[in-house]
Amino acid sequence: DKLVPKIWTDSTKGLQKILIDFHFVSIVKASEISRCCINVTGIEDLDGRESEILNEGDRQEVWIDLGSGKTPIDCYIEIFLKEMLTGEKSRCFIATKSGQSVSFTLKLLRIDFRGYLFELPAREMVNLAQKYRENGVAMFKNHPLFAQDYFNRAAKCILSLGPLKSDSQEPPLDDVTEEELQKLLESIYSNIAACLLKQERFEDVLHLMEFTQRDEDVPEKAIYRKALAHHGLKEYEEAKK
Questions:
Q1: Which of 28, 72, 78, 108 is most buried, by CB atoms within 10 Å?
Q2: In what residue span(s) does the Bride of doubletime-like TPR domain sit (predicted)?
């Protein structure tokens, strides 16, 4: 009971899992870059919702790469997995807008623990940031809030590498250049700005797009999104610049 709570809830996301059974294997939980082998059964009320994990029905053994979900259901399953211990079997519930809950029984069979995100070499961190950005782009049209979460995670990867200035005291970043990091970070900021525009958070967009005033060769999309933010604030002259 001390290791695994009988009931775990995240009310902000409408998630709940209820413990069915637990056989202790290890205290180690999955990190952001782990792979998890799971058993999933008893799927109810999916009602046509997209899920690469659940749409195939009951599955006795399937490996999941955390950070790869491209549907809301799959992203939520990853959250459950990061809260579970190996050997845990729980009934999971995901609340929906209709008032129903998608439910299924999830058992965590094994964790392929690959360390923690902050331990990754620079090149692997950049590759992970690019993967998160691609996932965000894939989800943006239909699920912009989930896309924004991926973009935020991508930015976190780049910023965790330290100052992006060549005169900083940080050690060399393998074969990763300052220019590559800066260009990728600006692209990610532009992606985040697109999400913020949908939420009409125009001032936040302008704060994020400050790099367009000091950098050369700024992406056209970044300039366009900055103009949309000015227009949203009724700063029409600024929007024309």
A1: 108
A2: 122-206
